[in-house]
User: Which sequence fits this backbone?
């Protein structure tokens, strides 16, 4: 009932989720010299946390708050503002379908509907096997190649409904072909 | 004489992202030239060139730099690579194909403004582009173009890429600065302007990628070349984007001042419409500037510009001033998206309103509530339950949002108002036709499909219900 006191300070252990590894903390610290304040390393830190854990867990937010010397609420404040940060576990590969005007005119709606049917999930859901999550995004800046979608890092351009089977069955459909910079990569697990 | 591309000179050249190729094409010569001048002279040169910001607002870059206080100790340079305006992608082309041109522009701007640190704020969706630019930056650092004592000039500049995480409003300069500081990307109240108090409470310059990419060319090719391009008040080359169902969608470079018709039908540009369709409308400079009528409308008899009358408006010149004569906000990003004749205008309105209601940051009430309210109305119209007074309601709502009446912190509601208002104004007849064609049965059917509970209540003359459970908002939400 609404007048009952809610204990917001203690969160059940399982809801906190995993925390940051030592390697990830070290990686976040390497961003501190770039900015005059530690707080400015917030977005890089959240990217690193999300790359490692898969989403921004409460414990990771707490860890980041400790590292950046800000209150945990400040971290959550930022996490909830940006659309790319997830506060709950996501699938291994996130399919982001562009829904802005250019892509819609070129058939983005049909691609989205076909994806929903093929994966058996709706927007903002994850397949039961944890392989794919499906989201939409406003403009991926590939309007000349509409309709387009991203799978993790890789942008698929001029996607047609009949291409979807081929794209989804390709195990490397989220890998980009160019040489990568390791700045935001997940720390190597040994 | 065919126009020689400069901003896109390396697009299509093999391995164009490498320093070697860029230098072979005369790269980093502008920087050498800038180092031969005093920083104040570079600012003057840019001011004389009347280089207007390519990000959308069209504010002269040289004037912006001139606002920096003289006695400043530290200056930050922020590069706005948060290109989120649909359907703009020219910055992506620059970063993907010619990252060193951007880096040279950063160095020149940094030297002119005396900046010590440059942050490239890149939108989170740019994944491949991030790796390309980071690699180019690493290469430039190794070659001594960044760091301490660049090319023996005694000038130091550090450059970092800061990745955003998906927020349109971070493309606004103070929103960008807030995001850079590790906060929610909500724009700040101005003044103080960033030139006085920006990132980390220090004087800050925020420039768009394309603005900076112009700088090396102004220095190497000289002022006369620059001033010979473009129209009266808009000088220089511009990267025009065109997308939608045209034959050759893409990014094309031309001097400022081509018309929308050329951009769509020109052989060097869009190459005409697919399947020989006609143009219903076109957003000529990103969604936020508003819409022009296409060639399904009759041509103006005397070539007169009059947006109030229903004439074809494709002869709008894409420079910084002419779009205003057609009731648009300005040039915007010069990225056009073409709406073909067979697309329902209600779908376009729904898409546009959804974009702004999704991207409003939520600080100012009339933007947060207004964009969402218009979105709900658009959903109602699109689902076939529009009311005859909905169009007037939208027109009234758009009058009461935005910076122009002085009600908002940033320009996002203005960017929302223009496309919505111009869509409803210029295609009013089509909206009215759709609303008039709704029969009470069809409306009831639509409502029944979406909200069966509402079906029990009375329905009047083709309109949606006035009240559902005493709340009008409920209807909008469900529809």
Assistant:
């Amino acid at each position: 009932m609404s007048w009952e006191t809610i204990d917001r300070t203690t969160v059940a252990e399982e809801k906190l989720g995993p925390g940051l590894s030592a390697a990830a903390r070290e990686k976040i610290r390497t961003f501190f010299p770039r900015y005059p304040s530690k707080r400015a390393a917030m977005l890089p830190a959240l990217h690193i946390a999300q790359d490692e854990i898969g989403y921004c867990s409460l414990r990771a937010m707490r860890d980041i708050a400790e590292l950046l010397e800000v209150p945990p609420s400040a971290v959550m404040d930022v996490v909830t503002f940006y659309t790319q940060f997830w506060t709950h576990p996501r699938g291994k590969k996130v399919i982001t379908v562009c829904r802005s005007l250019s892509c819609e005119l070129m058939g983005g709606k049909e691609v989205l509907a076909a994806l929903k049917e093929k994966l058996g999930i709706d927007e903002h859901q994850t397949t039961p096997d944890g392989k794919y999550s499906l989201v939409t995004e406003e403009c991926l800046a590939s309007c000349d190649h509409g309709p387009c979608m991203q799978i993790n890092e890789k942008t698929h351009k001029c996607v047609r409904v009949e291409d979807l089977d081929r794209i989804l069955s390709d195990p490397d459909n989220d890998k980009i072909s160019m040489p990568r910079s390791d700045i935001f990569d997940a720390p190597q697990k040994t | 004489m065919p126009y020689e591309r400069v901003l896109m000179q390396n697009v299509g050249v093999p391995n164009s992202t490498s320093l070697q190729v860029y230098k072979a094409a005369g790269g980093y010569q502008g920087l050498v030239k800038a180092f031969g001048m005093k920083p104040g002279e570079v600012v003057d040169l840019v001011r004389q060139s009347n280089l207007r910001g390519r990000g959308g607002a069209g504010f002269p870059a040289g004037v912006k730099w001139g606002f920096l206080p003289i006695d400043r100790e530290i200056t930050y340079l922020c590069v706005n690579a948060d290109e989120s305006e649909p359907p703009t992608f020219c910055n992506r082309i620059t970063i993907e194909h010619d990252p060193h041109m951007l880096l040279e522009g950063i160095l020149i701007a940094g030297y002119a403004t005396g900046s010590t640190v440059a942050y490239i704020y890149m939108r989170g969706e740019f994944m491949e582009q991030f790796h390309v630019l980071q690699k180019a930056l690493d290469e430039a650092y190794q070659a001594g173009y960044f760091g301490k004592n660049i090319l023996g000039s005694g000038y130091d500049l550090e450059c970092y890429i800061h990745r955003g995480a998906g927020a349109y409003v971070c493309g606004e300069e103070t929103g960008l600065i807030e995001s850079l500081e590790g906060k929610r990307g909500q724009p700040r109240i101005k003044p103080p302007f960033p030139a006085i108090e920006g990132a980390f409470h220090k004087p800050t310059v925020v420039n768009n990628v394309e603005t900076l990419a112009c700088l090396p060319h102004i220095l190497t090719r000289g002022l006369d070349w620059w001033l010979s391009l473009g129209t009266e008040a808009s000088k220089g080359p511009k990267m025009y984007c065109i997308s939608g169902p045209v034959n050759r969608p893409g990014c094309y470079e031309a001097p400022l001042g081509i018309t929308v018709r050329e951009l769509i039908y020109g052989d060097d540009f869009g190459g005409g419409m697919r399947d020989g369709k006609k143009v219903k409308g076109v957003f000529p400079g990103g969604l936020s500037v508003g819409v022009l009528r296409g060639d399904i409308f009759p041509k103006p008899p005397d070539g007169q510009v009059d947006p109030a009358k229903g004439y074809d408006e494709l002869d709008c010149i894409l420079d910084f001033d002419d779009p205003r004569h057609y009731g648009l906000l300005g040039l915007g990003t010069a990225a056009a998206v073409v709406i073909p004749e067979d697309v329902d205008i209600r779908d376009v309105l729904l898409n546009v309103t959804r974009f702004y209601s999704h991207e409003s940051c939520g600080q100012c009430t009339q933007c947060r509530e207004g964009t969402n309210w218009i979105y709900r109305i658009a959903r109602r119209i699109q689902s076939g339950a529009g009311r005859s007074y909905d169009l007037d309601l939208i027109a009234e709502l758009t009058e009461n949002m935005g910076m122009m009446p002085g009600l908002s912190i940033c320009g996002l509601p203005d960017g929302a108002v223009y496309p919505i208002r111009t869509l409803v104004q210029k295609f009013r007849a089509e909206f009215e036709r759709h609303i008039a064609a709704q029969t009470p049965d069809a409306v009831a059917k639509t409502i029944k499909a979406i909200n069966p509970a509402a079906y029990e209540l009375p329905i009047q003359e083709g309109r949606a219900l006035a009240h559902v459970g005493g709340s009008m908002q409920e209807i909008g939400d469900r529809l």
